[in-house]
Design brief:
The protein is of the alpha/beta class. It has one domain. It has helices at about 1-25, 40-50, 70-90, 140-150, and strands spanning about 30-35, 60, 70, 90-95, 100-105, 110-115, 120, 140, 160. The strands form three sheets. Strands 2-1-6-9 form a four-stranded parallel beta sheet, with helices on both faces. A three-stranded mixed beta sheet has the order 3-7-8. It is flat, with a radius of gyration of 19 Å.
């Protein structure tokens, strides 16, 4: 009898740990969707609800619905708005280096779910940027988002497509 009680208590404790772990993951996850694509908005809301992601972690950015965009479009309509949102919401803490550049010191977001409507590729530029593979043509947007200061925090950052 005592063994059953201990087993039941252990099972309830483990279920509680699982719930806290899930809460932690939802707090570390943002859902990026394209406000210019109506299906993207609905899908983002559905995804967040099913995953228990708080509405504050749904990130609307308005950008092209084309499959491939230019590097300038990417920087102007995706990367810069996301950097601004991260700074405003306190999802990362930055510091200035001796050369005057800003670097991420801490990052509260480790998972980024990209919802349908996010461009898939960025057209190659004449002058490669850090992280580009010269001669390879267009780069995938997932990799560029990873280079938008998200991946600099280590292997725990993940970008997923929904």
């Amino acid at each position: 009898m005592r063994t059953r009680w201990l087993a039941a208590a252990a099972a309830f404790a483990l279920m509680g740990l699982g719930a806290r772990g899930q809460d932690s993951l939802s707090q570390q996850t943002i859902v990026v969707f394209n406000g210019a694509a109506p299906e993207s908005v609905a899908l983002a809301q559905f995804y967040a609800q099913k995953r228990g992601i708080v509405p504050d972690h749904l990130v609307r950015v308005d950008y092209s619905t084309e499959e491939e965009i230019t590097r300038d479009e990417y920087d102007r309509t995706i990367a810069e708005p996301l950097r601004k949102i991260f700074q405003e919401k306190g999802w990362w803490r930055t510091h200035e280096t001796t050369d005057g550049r800003r670097r991420i010191q801490a990052n509260a977001i480790h998972f980024v779910a990209l919802i349908k409507g996010v461009p898939l590729k960025i057209r190659a530029t004449a002058t490669p940027l850090d992280g580009d593979n010269p001669g390879s043509g267009a780069v995938q947007n997932d990799g560029s988002l990873g280079a938008t200061e998200f991946r600099r925090q280590g292997p725990h950052n993940r970008i997923a497509r929904a």
